[in-house]
């Protein structure tokens, strides 16, 4: 199914916007611009057309013009009146820039100079025109339907003077002149939408932010292909139009990503499947960088969480990730959601682990992935639906890895003794001597009643003795305490999910609020 619609292409250098047409298919987003093309006859010059108009007693030249050198744009035809001189030629169109009038070049002329020339050019006026493909939107030229015979009169107001040349100029001829009709062997022209840029959507990404800032564009976004080709800034007339196109393009990108995942998974073992992957923006940590983000490509595959600078397109690319983390030892946390009533929701989804984040930047849909040694990655996505998918995907990937792994054992120490601490999906917690392998203590997951840590290496685990009902405190010291705490969290969450999946779904902050928006 193909989606089409009219939008604006914003040029950040000139700060002008131009009318374009978007055509969205399953795999490609195409940008089209209007142009005048020769559809029959000898095409002596497709770009420049020279047309002779015969001024009529009623209706004059039958056109209006806008623009001029004082506005840094050419003078263009802004209206063509039905069945009058300009319309009858079949060779003039709204959006045509006037290059010459009776052999006089007017490309650098002001509006008034061109009006004066046209009104005093006599009964026969020869003009040379070239269609202005990138007419600034401030000219407010009606797009009209292709072809000169439709009624092109515009109801849109413009800050520029719109001079009507459908009135009589200085004509010496009082008798009705013959109409400006096209000659039989003259070339025939029509206005068409022509493809100017095609952006493949496979592994493409969308950006709604102004480059190098945290500022959200108003009703605008950019689509960037894997090879770096960009649509430029696409602007829409209403927030609803912008949202509709954003959703449609994002859906097609997601569908293609799903196809790529299925292809990749054919080459992978059942224990090494891709669960989810996609583009995010990662906030750069450091001084004065709260607004600086860099594009990253994340993937959840098998036992690992990958961070790439560019998407993996071959099997070899997976070893070239910037960072690779074990899924049992990461913790997913949602920070911000943008709600319908324009308020922030700060959601803390972690147990007993303190982490400070500077949340001054105004990007919605933020999450972090906390990793070992107290480090973390802070990400932002473009849409709330993406945040919900990432939340669910991290849950699924972690739960699958916990069930596949079954258990994780960490070296630890207490009071000079080297010990081993095991988290087991079926048995719970076990601590044993690393040399003798003698079990010192073991508890089920349900017996863990609380924990506290010093934020560095030491943790206290509070277990309830099933016989005495008393709380027993077990202290341990780990080289990477954060990874162990994340692992405990992952195993307990996976255990709860296996017993009561409805409870896990009910804890989903993103899905609860996003799917309704």
From TrEMBL:
Report which gene this protein is encoded by: Sntg2
Which keywords belong to this entry? Answer: Actin-binding, Cytoplasm, Cytoskeleton
Q: Name one Pfam family in it.
A: PDZ
What protein family is recorded? Belongs to the syntrophin family.
Lineage, highest ranks first:
Eukaryota, Metazoa, Chordata, Craniata, Vertebrata
Q: Which PANTHER family match?
A: GAMMA-2-SYNTROPHIN, SYNTROPHIN
Residue spans of biased composition, Low complexity class: 143-160, 168-186
| PDZ domain residues | 50-133
Q: Does the keyword Ribonucleoprotein apply?
A: no
Compartment(s): Cytoplasm, Cytoskeleton
Xref: SMART domains = PDZ
The protein's GO terms of the molecular function aspect are:
actin binding; structural molecule activity
Q: Which GO terms describe its cellular component?
A: cytoskeleton; syntrophin complex
Keyword Cytoplasm assigned: yes
Descriptive protein name:
SNTG2 protein
**Region entry Disordered: which residue ranges?**
143-186
